[in-house]
Amino acid sequence: MKLEKMTSAHIDGVCKIEEACFSHPWSRQSIESELNNDGSVFVAALEGERVIGYIGMSVVIDEGYIFNVAVDADFRKKGVGTALINELVTFGKKHNLCFITLEVRESNQPARSLYSKFGFIKVGERKDYYSDPAENAVLMTKYF
């Protein structure tokens, strides 16, 4: 597995992962638009030329807001998510961010556990944030 700065060449693979992982996936247009935003950081995880995961974050001054973290089901529990989170945490330190924050489904214990390993802590909840199925979001933040 290798990590690369995401480019338009990765979008087809990212769209496939979005469709498989999320009940309300981002559209191709939304991904392309955000990828071209100077305030966004995207990293793709690759096995050969195949996109097996990705992560995206918006940077506003000295704050990071993670959009999505997704890993192809065939590559879960193989360190892909860990590598992607590590990449953004390293970016946050290097660029002197005050914090990185994200929302995660309350029931997504594997993701919550992964974020905790990197020092993300629960800082709040968003009631009924998700739909299909309806569920609260847990807000998790890593402070630097």
Would you kindly provide a written description of the structure presented here, covering whatever features stand out?
With about 140 residues, the protein is α+β, with helices and mostly antiparallel strands. It contains four helices and seven strands, in the order E-H-H-E-E-E-H-E-H-E-E. The radius of gyration is 14 Å and the shape is globular.
Write the layout of secondary structure elements.
Blueprint: E1 2-5, H1 11-21, H2 28-35, E2 40-47, E3 50-60, E4 63-71, H3 80-94, E5 99-105, H4 109-117, E6 121-130, E7 135-143
Parallel strand pairs: 4-5
Antiparallel strand pairs: 1-2, 2-3, 3-4, 5-7, 6-7
In short:
The protein is 30% helix and 40% strand. The chain has helices at 11-21, 28-35, 80-94, 109-117; strands at 2-5, 40-47, 50-60, 63-71, 99-105, 121-130, 135-143. Strands 1-2-3-4-5-7-6 form a 7-stranded mixed β-sheet.
Key features of this structure:
30% helix, single chain, 144 residues, alpha+beta, 4 helices
